[in-house]
Amino acid sequence: MSGKVASLTLLAFCQIATMALWFSATAVIPSLETEFAIGAAQASLLTSAVQFGFVFGTLSSAFLGFADRIEPKRFFMVSALVATVANTSILATDPGGNAIIALRFITGACMAGVYPLGMKMASTWAGKDMGLLIGILVGAVTLGSASPHLFNAFGGVDWRFTLITGSACSLAAALAINLFRLGPNQTKQPPFDVQAALSGFKIPSLRLANFGYLGHMWELYAMWAWLGVFLDASYRLSMTGDEATFWARTATFVVIGVAGGIGCLGAGYLADRLGRTIITIAAMSISGTCAVLVGFLFGGNPVLLFALCFIWGVSVVADSAQL
User: Fold this and answer.
1) pTM of the entire structure?
2) Are residues 317 and 244 in the same domain?
3) How many Cβ atoms from other residues are within 10 Å of residue 187's Cβ?
4) Structural contact between residues 139 and 269, judged by C-beta atoms closer than 8 angstroms
């Protein structure tokens, strides 16, 4: 597939489709708790294992130079295929055992061949629109991460529907990414250098950006991972069980996917014009305020709670691409 717009559109689709696996198990935690009576510790591990896997995958990829030694779209394809197999295998696994945690870890590790690699692939087409371009890709990641909640909302009480749909999307992405064409701005990266990696903490500006990103990601993944559970518990205090479940799942998708996508695109557009630091400070200030206030609306008016969460969804991810 040739041309900047066509290639980036395809890449965005593949990012959305594959990232559906990131929170696929997290989205069905309420259903797993009901059907299998899994405990709080197991529920937490289902989410945390993916994050630990992602960290392991990114560090391993950096040390071994996978992103530079393997053709990007082939690396993306293999990562998506392995993640698809791991996610599908959950269907034959005890939700309360250790095997499912291992499968979630593998899924997270594979995302290192999708999320950061996608950014690198997109950058080969970048000109003066780097902020907007990366914002589009982060928006795709955001929408993909939110999609399991949409699958869950229309899949009824059967959590298997969400996992199967996520796996089908990832498989489609693994095949489609082979049509992607790299842009003209390709560069060969040098081998991994520990001293260069440590410069991220030695150089004051990079150190501040890294710590800012750490705080941002701490909030972002806490919000993305637990918003669905939080809204479900809150809505049940003012709605019937089935009604609360449907609206909690739908609201979670809208907050993470739709609001997050708006935040990514808007911030990327403005960052190219107003500066990344200004946009990052504004986004962090707004999202931090929402994080402080949201607990006070628990069990309150569902519309007000959703409105605040929507603002939170826009701002919580708006600084991601800028950092």
Assistant:
1) 0.78
2) yes
3) 9
4) no
